[in-house]
Amino acid sequence: MEKLTEINLLYDFYGQLLTERQRKFIELHYCHDLSLGEISEQFGVSRQSVFDTLKRSEQALYRFEEKLGLVGKSLAQREQLARAVALLEDGSGPDIVNAKKILFQLIKAEES
Fold this sequence. Notes:
The chain has 112 residues and is mainly α. 84% of the residues lie in helices and 0% in strands. It is built from six helices and no strands.
């Protein structure tokens, strides 16, 4: 997965666990495509400070995923749903039974 996509996905799940400053820098750099220099000018800090904050923020997002695994679970569920939809689109008897099994497994996983 491309780093930009990965950071944005991690941010969607764990952004609220970052400090306000970390959230702002991540948003400006990864979502609004501002350079380190542009962010440093806007906040009156050095480029190095912006770089360090971004690196710490990225590391925190990766640690959250390592411990909680929410992004991985979400992607796995999305794959299972896509598989179930494909089976339902085929429309044959065994495919529909398999699709139902997948959907029931996802529902059970959500309840636990």
